[in-house]
Amino acid sequence: MESRMGRTVPAVRHTGGMLDPLAAVRTPQDPACDVYLTGTVFLDIVFTGLDSAPVRGTESWARGMGSSPGGVANMATALARLGLRTWLSAAFGDDVYGAYCWEELSQGEGVDLSLSRTVPGWHSPVTVSMAYEGERTMVSHGHEAPPRQAPPVDPPPTRAAVASLTPGVGQAWIARAAERGARVFADVGWDGTGRWDLAALPDLRYCEAFLPNAEEAVRYTRTTCPRAAARALAEHVPLAVVTLGPEGAYAADGRTGETAEVPGIAVEALDTTGAGDVFVAGFVMASLAEWPLADRLAFAGLAAALSVRHFGGSLSAPSWAEIAAWCHRVHACPATDSGTACRYAFLRRLLTDGEGVAPLRRAVPTIGFPRR
């Protein structure tokens, strides 16, 4: 780490031509895995350019369409594109969709799938997402993968694990990961029971950070605003981060009493699918790199904002090249708001104009194009 004018500045280095954001904090004793996660991989088909929601009995035409791996693949791809050594344990169908998702994640993104499996005769889950008016509506279909014949996979030794908590359901692997020293970062889905009871999240006790959105946070804490909700959640988990959509994010550290708030970045949103996953991935990376809390929020928000400019949840995630291009463009533009330029100056000092030139894979209308 390097200090400038009393401010801690993150350090990133290049190893073998690749940017490693954790190079400054790595030791020979560290595990091979930076982040472990598990969940369901979907094939996502996203329609964009809709003027309104489809109307029953009519046919709607979309001006854009993209296909990409989805579900837990959103998070895995975002983590890998930020330079983290990412291991995913998931089931893949032995159909064309499953083979496509496996290839995109393993060969295209460098996600380690050694703990994953292909299930004969099981078809891949599918989600169709329709984006309009800055939001999206999703329809999904799939079945639970058949249980493993062998014992469940234990998480490997890892710096961090990312979990999605489910109300009323405990996941044994989360406790095992925490007991082995992993820092657990968790978000949560919508509580279909309507109870919104923190006691129904038994694995919250193992988490270092909890990252709900504003509505979820307010409902769980019975508060009236997301900032009060974050402070209330910090009494139950060491670090509470509440995402505020385009308005940014707010965090409260229950260990130190520190709070931080960073506004959102205005961009023209094409598709918001997976933006929350990209935010979590950015926050995890910045946390593992030991950045200050406000810088972690700012970086996570920037990564999420850059992602919504492209189709799909996973293949919309930015790389360091895209982050560098944004930073240099912002600081070179005289019309840039001075507050924005100052807020992201810490990234400007770290990145060069040639930060990775390989083009990113993006969602396309179909699957199966040969890799070029």
Task: Describe the protein in words.
This protein is an alpha/beta fold. Helix content is 27%, strand content 24%. The strands form 5 sheets. It has an 8-stranded mixed β-sheet with strand order 8-5-13-14-15-16-17-18, with helices on both faces. The chain has a 4-stranded mixed β-sheet with strand order 7-6-11-12. Strands 1-2 form a two-stranded antiparallel sheet. The chain is globular. Mean pLDDT is 87; it is low at 1-11.
Blueprint of the fold:
Elements: E1 2-4, E2 7-9, E3 13-15, E4 18-20, E5 33-38, E6 41-48, E7 64-71, H1 72-81, E8 86-89, E9 91-93, H2 96-108, E10 117-119, E11 126-132, E12 135-141, E13 158-165, H3 172-179, E14 183-188, E15 209-210, H4 214-221, H5 226-233, E16 239-243, E17 249-253, E18 259-262, H6 275-288, H7 293-307, H8 320-332, H9 338-343, H10 345-348
Parallel strand pairs: 5-8, 5-13, 6-11, 9-10, 13-14, 14-15, 15-16
Antiparallel strand pairs: 1-2, 3-4, 6-7, 11-12, 16-17, 17-18
Helix pairs in contact: 1-6, 4-5, 6-7
